[in-house]
Amino acid sequence: MDFSLALTFSLALVIGLTLGLLGGGGAILAVPMLTYITGLDPVQAIPTSLFIVGVTSLVSLTLHALKKRVVWRTGFIFGIAAMVGAFVGGRVGAYVLAPVLMFSFAAVMTAAAIAMIRGRRQAGDQDERPQELPIGKALAIGAVVGLVSGFVGAGGGFLIVPALVLLSRLPMPRAVATSLLIITMQSASGLAGYTVSTSLDWSLATVIAGLAVAGSFIGFWLSNRLPSQGLRKGFGFFVLAIAAVVFIKETLQLIG
Question: CB–CB of 71/170 below 8 Å?
Answer without folding.
Answer: yes
